[in-house]
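User: Teach me something about this protein's shape.
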Amino acid sequence: MFSIIFPYRNRDIQRVKNALESLENQTNKNFEIYFVNYGSDNAHTQQLEDLLLNYRSVKYSYLYTEQQPWNKSKAINSVLTNLESGYFFVADIDMIFHLSFIEKALQLLKHNETYYFQVGFLSEEESKKTKKFEDYNIKFKSNEGATGLTMCPVEIAKSIGGFDEFYHFWGSEDTDFHVRLKNAGKPVSFYSKEILMLHQWHKTYRNKEIKTLSKSLQVSGIVQYNHFYLKKASQEKRTVVNNGNFGNVQSKKDYEELIDYEKNNTELISNKQIEIDYFLFKRLPCLKSGLHAFKISEDVNEPVKMMIKSIIKKNKTKYYSLKTINDKLLFHIINYYSHYHYNYSVAKDLKSIKFVINKL
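Assistant: First, the predicted structure itself:
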């Protein structure tokens, strides 16, 4: 079976519709679609689920990861781990597919190797139009460095542990997958004989990075960090990742357990540097098994005058900004705690951070 996987989170519904409509009219119907909603907010989830009622053949799943950073690898692996055989294709909701995409893809699969595809990028203006595939004006084409949209035998993907779940937010997980396939001696080919997909315009994710604290989870410098990790994967000839255990995400029960525990069991932590450093480097690593909840906020008991003196270095007490704490804590979660059940959130007023974890 040929399985198409759509990872999704909080994107506009029209582009989802455009992608699914282009698959509805394929010349070859021998495929299935898995749509993974990786913790979208209530508004986007409702719109998405209403839309998918029109596509009853789509296999839909909602993952309870709204209070976790975006992780494309986990979204893909949540499907891949349950596929027994055949081939899968990592799709993108920004794509509009040529009517014969499935037909051509199935022909390529006879070679039993991994392929990824050249894509035609549309301008913002062109993306708003409704045309036949061949009538769109392509602004530019992707090259071999654009490694998304991968088609691979399920057995081969599983043999290297799927997509590396270390990668959070955005950047590098697709290239990492290709690097590890090649390290394992598996061929990876770039298909550029013809354009079979068009990319609907959107702002680049890197341009969305916010330098200040935001309720929308972000970490300064994460793109560069992911690229460095990718560089190490190549240098170290890495092949298998995730310790053979991939595609596991917390259930609704796990998510609700974290929510309920946090309501009455929160440990308060101030933004003093020494307190945060102790929390990150001593408190967290030594947590006992079970549920733990923390709320970090500015030290409201410290007189304003003392805070000012701290800033101008006339007082030994030093403080981290909540943005700095956000980045430090999320980096710790990504590196050491992402395999646990956890919730992480920034308050609406941007004055506190909550972190709840079940250290199993």
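Now, about its shape. The chain is about 35% helix and 20% strand. The two ends are 36 Å apart (CA to CA). If you'd like, I can walk through any region in more detail.
User: That's plenty for now, thanks!
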